[in-house]
Amino acid sequence: FYVEKTEKIDKAENYKILYTRNGMSEDNTTAQIKYILYVNKENGSMTQFILQLTDEKVILEEYVIFDKVYMYSPWMLALTDDLKWNITTVIETMEKNYNYRVLGREKINARECFKIERIHKTGNIIDEKVILWVDVDKRILVKAERYYENLKLGEVNLIDYSSI
Prior knowledge:
With 164 residues, the chain is mostly beta strands. The chain is 0% helix and 66% strand. The relative contact order is 0.12.
């Protein structure tokens, strides 16, 4: 990781932090993974997180629960009660935008959790909505629900905390 420069986002000065590494694709070829983080210079909060992949089939080290929902992801460490951020994934000429925001806190299985909404849009049309519950203390996924419009497509729940 290194600070490339400072940049203004929403009138606030931010550090632009870069990290590039090689990953492996499903077909065992090397693919580059680039992480770009914008961190508020004044309060240290993450303003924006961008993940750029050179191959859509790259395998990330995060544990995938269902499409783009991870058991753990580095952004979970930066969660606060009023955090909002966007993740843009660029694969060659295709760009995907995911908007995240913390909706508040809820108890799931007696655990205090951040409740996060993730929306994927194409233009003004919402393609997918995912609600995530991340443990406030452990910073891991406790529950996830995936929706298309108002139709619930799936749900994942962490059952056993004993080894965590």
